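ok trying this again, last paste got cut off
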Amino acid sequence: MEKFKDLNKSFINGEWMEGSSQRRYNILNPYNNAVISNVSLATSKQLEESFEIAKNAQKGWAKTSAEKRRQILLKVGEFLQENRNEIVEMISRETGGSLIKANVEFQLTMEIVEESTNMVDEIYQMHEVPSAIDHKVNHIHRLPLGVISSISPFNFPMNLSMRTIAPAIALGNAVVHKPDVQVGFTGGIIIAAAFEYAGLPKGVFNMILTDLKEIGDGMLTNPIPKLISFTGSTPVGQHIGAIAGKNLKRVALELGGNNPFIVLSDADVDRAVDAAIFGKYIHQGQICMCINRIIVHKDLYEDFTAKFVERAKALPFGDQLDPKTIIGPLVNERQLEKVQQIIEETKAAGVNVALEGKRIGNVLTPTIFRDVQNSDKIAQTEMFSPVVSIIQTETDEEAIDIANDTPYGLSSAIFTSDLEKGERLGLQIDSGMTHINDQTVNDGTNIPFGGNKMSGLGRFGSPWIVEEFTVTKWISLQTQYREYPF
């Protein structure tokens, strides 16, 4: 941790810079509220300057060779790997995630960087298509988009930042990036240090530590960025989409989820419980893909519920830096109090409690509600915490209907002994991703990651992200004189 502690500044035009605001921010360990670092916040003027710098730097970066861009990314990966232990510790310390979660996040980040090295050849490749006009040749080119505005969340900050930053830079773009300042080190500072080490030209990547009080909608309304990449809540995503639509900007939005985990009548209960425990409780449920509703066929309901409750009750909780810990703290007290309020409202509404959690400092242990109706408020609320609803269903077909009865459509899962049936039913779930005989938290660099309905727009992952972060250009060549009708 000490290696990065002094880099508690924004990174603008290749320089570590103090924020110009009079306000400062304490980055805290959410377990005990210990101060990790105190940072100065950047102002709206510094943000505007960052976009101008990125615009100018991108012109030169767009002309670099594929090999140079590849070598930069390889050096980024080298830096991250050489500092793995310190980075994993900081991920855990700053996000409140267990060491298991921190290692998963680090590995996902490395995979993104590696996959991005394969994207560098995607721009300036010409594809010829036929023409109905005599002696005309059509050339289709893929060019860098320009400057990308990147906004990342608190839960998987390094992974969810890098999945925008690395492909964008690989494809000849420049980036202005704002991490959630709560996790400024893993969401921005360490990434900036990696690109500085790699020798990225100044201004191609700019990272500002700030908050909405300082910059308002500046990441969205500035005319320079051609695309806004955001991971976070659906209400904020709707706000971004409205501004982007008005200004005809592209968006890549990964938003909230109400992810169903379906246990069909022919499922292996023990294997389903194993998967559900991981898919619900990794990072205390603070992942957009985490299981929010467990939908179980009536024939297996009591068996599954009893076994799931016993497993959840036994999960170790406490200091996230203890290797034995599975359930660490929620990200801040505000989030914890919000969840506690929903729990109390649900209990007051008469919903049955199968396992009552408890608050210990900033840690909330698992809370499980059973016999939940899908119309209950808790079943329609993204909990983002170790709280889950178990719903009983009469038939397998009804389970699919319940799964779809939500405005969200990010991830989903089905457990069954019949894989063919599982895939057929999976295609009936209106979500971007469905996993058969697995849980809902899955990611990969070579898959189309994203949601349907209120869960987002666009797809991350290669090659889908290439289309998002580039512009297609048609050049026609009339090789012989063309006769016109007038």
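PB: full thing came through this time. Residues 440 and 469 are 27 Å apart (CA to CA).
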